[in-house]
Please model this.
Amino acid sequence: MIPQDILSRKRLLEIADLALLPVIVILVGAGSFFFGRLSALEACRGHLIIHPPGGAQLIAAPTPVTPDYLGESSPANAAAGTNDSASSAPQSDGPHNYIASKNGSKYYLPTCAAVKRITEANRVYFATTQEAKDAGYTPAANCKGL
Model:
């Protein structure tokens, strides 16, 4: 049988005051460490790229799918009679997993911020990193996932 002085309300509150704060601090620290590691794993995992059968369209997440992203001529270009696909590297032959600039030496994932600064006319598309390396491009250091 447990002695009554151990189970008294006052004694239980004293124990809670002594133990509750360290337990909370330990749980917060462990949770912060866990979520920090989880975010590091997320950054190393890369991006999800789905290639449907037949290669009709490329759907990449989290990049929004637009006609320019897929390498197709935009409605404005079609109305003007221009077609960028004839002037640059393969644009509609296959998936566009990597993008480089004709004027640069680095290649990027479509989700990298630097891709926004490459004009559509200067973009070169590659399906694999090996294709980009064979063309003389190197991976961009500021693009996570390469």
